[in-house]
Design goal:
Strand order of the largest sheet: 2-1-3-4-5-6
Protein name: Response regulator transcription factor
Number of strands: 6
Helix content: 40-55%
Keywords: DNA-binding, Phosphoprotein, Transcription, Transcription regulation
Largest sheet: 6 strands, parallel
Order of helices and strands: EHEHEHEHEHEHHHHHH
Pfam families: GerE, Response_reg
Structural class: alpha/beta
Organism: Streptomyces rhizosphaericola
Radius of gyration: 18 Å
Distance between the termini: 40 Å
InterPro entries: CheY-like_superfamily (IPR011006), NreC/VraR/RcsB-like_REC (IPR058245), Sig_transdc_resp-reg_C-effctor (IPR016032), Sig_transdc_resp-reg_receiver (IPR001789), Tscrpt_reg_LuxR_C (IPR000792), WalR-like (IPR039420)
């Protein structure tokens, strides 16, 4: 079972989310919180796999709670849930290690899909959030970010670049393994090595770095060699 904590200051919203999530056979809502600080405290004790955090909460907002969770309960995967889709919020959430971002008006099936993706260690972006990320990557300053990202990738081998490119597409370890004809365990080893080399806290940050660098699966990679390289 995927154990979920729901943090929102509106009891009715929490009840609705609980009803949606518990309709799935593999998800159980084990805790609720009315503010970010309470969410961090309840997650700190263990027993939570995924935390759904509203951005606008009293005492401690969702983005601050996301940062605190990274310190207090680093194994908990956090999804940011909000009625607001501003680009800055999306990028801040992902930059601080969030497993994904979706809007409160998302379809019930999308909410369940996001929780499953987060629990599996994958990134999840709602279509609206994906548009904000794409806009950010094409905004003024993106060229400078791209150059910096490509420099950070200089130390990766060709195979590591191929794995990273698939992370940038949002693929799971299993899916990346099928694409590259590798075992899931081998891909996991590569991901761990990539995170260490790039000094990324999680695969979401690595995926964003791949996007910034313009990394594409197959063919010649920016700043590197073709698939035959090392």
């Amino acid at each position: 079972m995927i154990r979920v904590l729901v943090a929102d200051d509106e009891p009715l919203i929490r009840a609705g989310i609980r009803a949606i999530l518990t309709s799935a056979d593999d998800i159980d809502v084990v805790a609720e919180a009315g503010d970010g600080r309470e969410a961090v405290e309840k997650a700190r004790g263990g027993g939570v796999d995924v935390a759904l955090l509203d951005i606008q909460m009293p005492v401690m907002d969702g983005l601050t709670a996301l940062v605190e969770l990274g310190r207090a309960a680093p194994k908990v995967r956090a999804l940011i849930l909000t009625t607001f889709g501003e680009r800055d919020n999306v990028l801040r959430a992902l930059g601080h290690g969030g497993a994904g971002f979706l809007l409160k008006d998302s379809a019930p099936g999308e909410l369940i899909q996001a929780v499953r993706a987060a629990a599996a260690g994958n990134a999840y972006l709602s279509p609206a959030a994906t548009r904000h990320v794409a806009d950010a990557l094409s905004a003024p300053g993106a060229t400078t970010r791209g150059e910096a990202a490509r420099r950070r990738l200089d130390g990766l081998t060709t195979r590591e670049r191929e794995v990273l490119a698939l992370l940038g597409e949002g693929l799971s370890n299993a899916d990346a393994g099928r694409r590259l004809h590798m075992s899931e365990a081998t891909v996991k080893t590569y991901v761990s090595r990539i995170l260490t080399k790039l000094d990324c806290g999680n695969r979401v940050q690595a995926a964003l770095l791949a996007r910034d660098a313009g990394l594409q699966p197959g063919g010649l990679q920016p700043g590197g060699h073709g698939p035959g390289g090392h």
